[in-house]
Amino acid sequence: MRLTFLGTGTSNGIPIIGCHCPVCTSDDPRDRRSRTSAVIHHNDRNILIDTATELRIQAINAGLDQVDAVLFTHAHADHVGGFDDLRRFNEIGQQNLPVYAGPETARNLSERFGYAFEHHFPFYGGKPDLDLIEFDGPFDLFGDIVTPIPVTHGNWTVHGFRIGSLAYLTDAKHIPDSSIDLLRNADVLVLNALRERSHPTHLSLAEALEVIAEVKPKRAYLVHLAHELSHQVATDQLPSHVSVAWDGLSIDVTASGE
Known about the structure:
Elements: E1 2-7, E2 37-42, E3 45-49, H1 55-62, E4 69-71, H2 77-80, H3 86-93, E5 97-101, H4 103-112, E6 130-134, E7 139-141, E8 144-153, E9 156-163, E10 166-168, H5 177-183, E11 188-192, H6 205-215, E12 219-223, H7 231-235, E13 242-244, E14 250-252
Parallel strand pairs: 3-4, 4-5, 5-6, 10-11, 11-12, 12-13
Antiparallel strand pairs: 1-2, 1-14, 2-3, 7-8, 8-9, 9-10
């Protein structure tokens, strides 16, 4: 299994419009962060996690020319802003795409993008043609069991996902004990860490490190960083098994943790 980080930034992206702070003007390419999304490559399938606002350019930069399914964490704008770009993957694959979402997210997607789930065109590519599948627990996806991991993000329930030894969480603020248990023994944990200061709806860097210390993954990668944290400043505060992800980073995930 391989995971590619398509985007690793917060809802504004970095650089932020009109901002001239050290991170937004940094010459370190790892400080240029589009909105958070990722793709899992496994058994000749590509499973997209969220359709970030920059999906089109993310896919071009990553050489992503095939998507077989989409997992949605939630329906905030930075995670669904590239929704319409799914139509290109319909056109390439000449088939509908299955998209998976929890009840709250499925309802929001249906309300905002109803045209994608009905009135299919006689050809692919004119609009997204999607099959919405609402999950309420673990489900089978191409022979792998995907376990949704519910967390709290403000008033929203956001879902992370566990597939084998990979656990992926973004936009979490509170992780209930039952979800903490689902993160244990992961070889790779992806987790959001917005900034050093506390935030009402996102984990801070210190809070993310507390979660990592509790669940003890072999490796952890931080995403959804704001412009208050440069790549290097964040990295300097991390233990050796924790890294700051960056746009385009691709990592291997194996059952043994190698």
